Structure formats: structure tokens, C-alpha cells
Amino acid sequence: MNLFASAIDWILDPANYVGLNAIPLRIGQHLVFSLVTLVFASAIAIPLGYLIGHTGRGRGLAVTTSGGLRAIPTLGLLTLVALWVGIGVVAPYVALTVLAIPPILAGAYTGFEAIDRRTIDAARAVGMSELQIVRKVELPLGLPLLIGGLRSATLQVIATATLAAYVADLGLGRYLFSGLKTRDYAEMLGGSILVILLALALEGIFALIQRFVVPRGVSGRLGTAPKLRTGGPAAAR
Amino acid sequence: MTWVLANLGLIWARTLDHVVLSLPPIVICFVIAVPLGWFARRYRVSRGIILTGAGLLYAVPSLPLIFVLPAVIGTSLLSPVNVIIALTLYGIALMVRVVTDGLDSVDADVRQSASAMGYSTWSRFWQVELPLSGPVLLAGMRVVAVSTVSLVTVGAVIGVQSLGSLFTDGFQRGIQAEIVAGLVATVALALVFDGALVLAGRLLMPWTRRVAPPKPSVPLEVSAA
User: Fold this and answer.
1) Which residues of chain A does B186 touch, with a Cβ-Cβ cutoff of 8 Å?
2) In chain B, how many domains are there?
3) Number of compact structural domains in chain A
4) Long-range contacts of A201-205 (CB under 8 A, 24+ apart)
5) Is position B223 within any domain?
6) Which of A9, A70, A75 would best serve as a mutation to test chain B binding (most B beta carbons within 10 A)?
7) Domain span at residue A36?
8) How far apart are CA B126 and CA A115, in angstroms?
9) SS3 at position A75
10) Looking at the Swiss-Prot or TrEMBL record, what is one Pfam family this protein matches (chain B) (predicted)?
11) Is residue A8 part of a domain?
């Protein structure tokens, strides 16, 4: 247990709160990097996912691509892109954006697909235009699954951002690799604990968001709630 | 391509390392997740605790987990055992949810009919509920197998050898072909595992061959097999 005690000491050591390797700075880097990656990935994946979900076209291709991307090891993609563009922050941004796309894409189109066809037919029958159907029916009803996809993507990006420190001076992963180099287990363990806490905190936040975005008519007493497979890796399939 | 041809022996050796690291987690997680998933379904309290725990465990990033495990179980940092245990934990975290979903997908009427025919809880589980949730479990195991094969490579950054070593080595020495070879070999291995699972599913569940390919969220057809 004294291993953990030394890791806690490392986390609380004032020396780790100053300079370019300060813990708050590393946490900030980790979060900003993850956020930017997620914004990039969302900008590509959400419109595409909505298009697939609304028209029902290209679904097979999307399923195959996201399934195939899951099999690609993150580390391989990171190192390969790093060799192409050189050591630095560009490689992690590219690699992680690519990795974050499949779960968000899946969340976007499964969100639309999970909607009862009769609901959409009803919306069309009362005279809504296609754009109105997307905006007023499909978007709110599909939101919980989209947030589920964003949740999986976030977890993956936070985890992979740690690995990205292997090819760039970036985020909390630096502590793991510099500790590994100097055989400083307190630093490695302390850094690992910080990453794990960060991931769990984000997971908790997303769990809350996911609960709040369920439209009242669905979550309420109407009793016709579609079965939503929210969260978890299964939803990203 | 010349690099690949000159280093076929190395690629093969790392592939074997990779199999040794990825096979145990895939098998062990299934063996542990089935009883755990059953228990999760059995009581309301256990369901909440086990499924929440599995969700949180799955949220823990892999590399930090590999670093933390030695402090918890007393292995050395560079031991391959850490990688195997970490991946087993992820497999369990994923499969517990799948097993619970799978058992949920068995029609309550079927369960009651089995009881009415005189099945005990024990034999009903093995002969009715487990086979009927088979397609869902298979879909889950395919995800576990593919992600395990992919995650094994992470161990390479701390020195646990696998196909991931081709990434770290290729990166440090600037050999693109080595990284590409590693990527191709990892994806190929994942496909082999996936194919083996599909084949096992066909052999173990011959009744699924006649109906449409199963999807986890769709209620199962109870065919007359």
C-alpha cells in the first residue's frame, strides 16, 4: 500500500505544481486536446450520421467502416501518423480525430434509426417538412444515443490522449512515460491515478447529461418510450 | 515491402507473442462474465452494483490501468501478466453487460414453459436460457476479441512484446514499413479471431443458421430447433 502512499505524495508535492510540467497544466492540456479532437470528429461525424440516419442510405458502409476502425490499434495509427508528419502535436490530433469518428457516427445514425417509424410517419402526416422532421422530431429523440456515442468517443479520446504522450509532449501521459524512463514509480502511478480520475469524472458527467437530454415526452409517464440502449461500448456498434 | 520480406521471422514471432497475450483474456473474461451476468440479473441490487461497476471499469483507460495493476497485485511493472489481467478486466466489463442483455432477451414465456416442463433453475439456465442468449453472447464476444487484439499492442510502450512492438520499434527507428506491417498483422489477427468465433457459433448454435443473422438488440426468434 505504501506504493499508493508515495503516489499520493507525488500528486500533492508542491514541486509538481510549478513550471511547464505542472499537474494543472497537464490536466488542462489533456482536456483541451481531447475537446478539440472531439469537436473536429463531431463536425465530421454528426452531419454524416444524421444524413445516414435520416435517409437510411449508406448504413452498411458506415457499419463496416466503424467496425473495421475498431480493429485498428491506436498505437499503430499514432506512430504511423507521427512518422508522416513528424513528432509533435499534429499526429495525435489527426490520429485521435479518426478514432473518435466511429462512435459519434454510430451514435448519430442509431439515434435516428431507433425512432419508431410511426412517429416519423405521423410527423409527415401532420404536414412537417423533411427539415422540420429532422429538427423537431429526429434530433431531440435521437439525442440520448448521440450523447451515448459522444460519451464512448470521449472515453476513448481521454484514454488515447495518454498514449499520445508517446509521440508528443502532451497531457498527463507525459508523467507515465517520463516516470518509466527514470524508473520513478511514484510519478507513473500518480500520473495514472490522475488520468483514471479524469476519465471517471467525465464518465459521471456524461451519465448525468444523458439523463437530462431525454425529451420529457419520452422519459415521462406516456409509457411509449422506445428502448434506448444508452451508453457503453455496445451502443457504439 | 523489402523490410517485411527480410523480417518475416520477426513478424511471426511477435504474432505468436500477441496470440499468447490476447487469447487468455478472451477466454477468461467469458468464463467469469457468464456467472457474473447471471448474478447481475438475479437481484435488483446486484444488477445495479455489477452493471455500474462494469461501466466504471470500462471507463478506466488501458495504459494507466496497466501501470496501476502492479501496485495492486504485486507483479513487476514489466510483467506480461499485467497486460493479460487488464484486458481480462475490460473483457469482463463489456461481457457482463452483454450477458445480462442476452439473458434478458430470452422470452419470459419460454422461461416459464421450461419451468413448467420440470426444468430446475440450474438446468433451465444451461439448457434453455444460455443457448437462447447465445447469439447475443457471440456478438459480444466478437467485440471483445477484436478490441482485445487491438489493445494488446498498448503493452508495447512499457516493453511487453507483441505486434505493438513493431509500432514502437518502427517509430523509434523511422521504419514506416514496420508500423504498417504491424497494423496489417494486428487487423489480420483480429479477423482470424473473429472468424473463429463466428465458426464456433455456427457449430454450437446450428439453429441460428436458418434464421437471419442475429442482432443483440432484437428479440430472438424461438425457432423449432
Assistant:
1) 71-73, 76
2) 1
3) 1
4) A202/A154, A202/A155, A202/A158, A203/A151, A203/A155, A203/B55, A203/B56, A203/B59
5) no
6) A75
7) 21-236
8) 35
9) helix
10) BPD_transp_1
11) no
- Of B55, B64, B168, nearest to A195 by CB-CB distance is B64
Question: How many Cα atoms within 13 Å fall on the side-chain side of residue A36?
Answer: 12
User: Using the beta-carbon criterion (under 8 Å), do A196 and B65 form an inter-chain contact?
Assistant: yes
Where residue B198 sits, what CATH number does that domain have?
Answer: 1.10.3720.10
Encode pLDDT of A140-198 as tens digits: 888 888 888 898 899 889 988 888 888 888 888 888 888 888 888 888 888 899 999 99
**Identity of residue A153:** A
CA B101 to chain centre: 16
Q: What CATH number is associated with residue A88?
A: 1.10.3720.10
Residue A70 and residue B147: Cβ atoms within 8 Å? yes
The model carries a pTM of 0.82
What would the pLDDT profile of B109-167 be if each residue is shown by its tens digit? 999 999 999 999 889 999 999 999 998 999 999 989 998 999 999 999 888 889 999 99
- Which residues in chain B have Cβ-Cβ distances shorter than 8 Å to A232? 55, 58, 94, 97
- Calpha distance B184→B186 (Å, rounded): 6
Phi-psi region of A144 (alpha: psi -120 to 50; beta: other; left: phi over 0): alpha
B3, B18, B51, B60: which to substitute to probe chain A, counting the most A Cβ within 10 Å? B60
